Amino acid sequence: MRFSARGSTPSAGELFRHFARKTSDWLGSPGAFWLAVLSIVAWALLGRHFDYSDTWQLVINTATTIVTFLMVFLIQNTQNRDAKALHLKLDELLRAVKGARTGLVRLEELTEDQLNALQDEFTRLQLRTKARLERTPPDVGADQAEVSGAGRADHPAAGPAST
Question: How far apart, in whole angstroms, are the C-alpha atoms of residue 145 and residue 137?
Fold first, then answer.
């Protein structure tokens, strides 16, 4: 783990972030999977030695419960961080593209009703685009028709419709 140039001690949050990232990376590896499989096989084989007792069963139940409980926090931390990084990358792209609606930056902070309204707007745009493409005559190349609208009778550049 890197420390700042001033030599200060990292915060508890930063220590947890580092621990969560490293642990998630390792626990998501094939080695960790095979170690878990080996542990379960060893536990199963020991069952006969312990006469398949309640204590023998309690050991695996307790171990898996503890591991699951702790993994929830590690996975959630990693996913939250990854989602935040992805949102920031997308926000940067929206800001960089000329003509993009920068109001779409930080959508995750909108209310559920606001998100539903925006989704409805995009659904209407998609339906209009689909309808426009379905009206495009087959003799006009799809790429040209989609980009410029040329060749459509309702497009001003198309001129009067021929009969």
Answer: 9
Asked whether residue 73 is assigned to any structural domain, the reply reads yes
User: Can you tell me whether residue 117 is helix, strand or coil?
Assistant: helix
Task: Provide the 10 A C-beta neighbour count for residue 121.
Answer: 10
**Total number of domains constituting the chain:** 2
Mean pLDDT per 10-residue segment, the chain (163 residues): 64 90 90 95 95 95 95 91 90 87 82 91 92 78 50 41 38
Domain that holds residue 133: 110-153
> Count of alpha carbons within 13 Å of 33, Cβ hemisphere only?
4
SS3 content of the chain, % helix, strand, coil (to 5): 75, 0, 25
Burial 86-101 (b: 16+ CB within 10 A, else e): eeeeeeeebeeeeeee
Q: Which residues of 135-161 are buried (b: 16+ CB within 10 A; e: fewer)?
A: ebeeebeeeebeeebeebeeeeeeeee
